[in-house]
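#struct-help
A.M.: can someone run this one for me? Single chain, 227 residues.
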Amino acid sequence: MSIKDVIKKSVLESEMYNQAISLSTILTMTADLLLALVMGLLIYAVYKKFYKGVVFSKNYAITLVGMTVLTSMVTLAISTNIVISLGMVGALSIVRYRTAIKEPLDLMYMFWAITTGIAIGASMYILAGAAFVIMLILVLCFGAKGATGYQYMLVVHYDGDGAGDNVIRALGKNRYTVRSKIMRGDSTELTVQVRCKNDSQIFMENIRGVEGVNNAALIEFNGEYHG
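D.P.: on it. Structure tokens below:
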């Protein structure tokens, strides 16, 4: 028996090459896709709840749901038909994604959605559920603001030299770091990173009452710089 005959008997004439799909297989696929949709929505909810960036991207959040479902679909196709799996692997190998991911946590959520879709597509429901619980605990423990406090960027415009010292005093017991000080004639722009243990912003009222302060802006700061 030649190698060609062996391949034909073991692969081409096997049930994996058969395009017919039983009713139980269709029901299993439908249930897996619905479960992937539910898990994707849960990941979407966690991402929306604990997002710390400047501008929340709803399009990216919806992408997490779609990515979970589509990855599950790909895994189901690969696991049920060897011919489709070979063609799909070849097609996906030439795809290049050039969308920049600036936030490291966004990358974590993306891989979370992909791996959840793979686990559900492979019928590893316990693994997908256990991974969701572990990731949720991780986000709760390290994503809570109370763990590191609140950080703000304070930008103050004032006139005169004495106003700057009074602005620093107005910060009270809050830890701070002067990031920049730009002087234009009698006007000065002062940028200070302020660390607070709670979300109280009473120091802003004190700064507004300082003589010589023209305006003050407070921006929540997550500690990341992006170029």
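A.M.: thanks! Residues 17 and 83 are 6 Å apart (CA to CA).
D.P.: also worth noting: The domain at 147-220 is CATH 3.30.70.1150 (Alpha-Beta Plaits).
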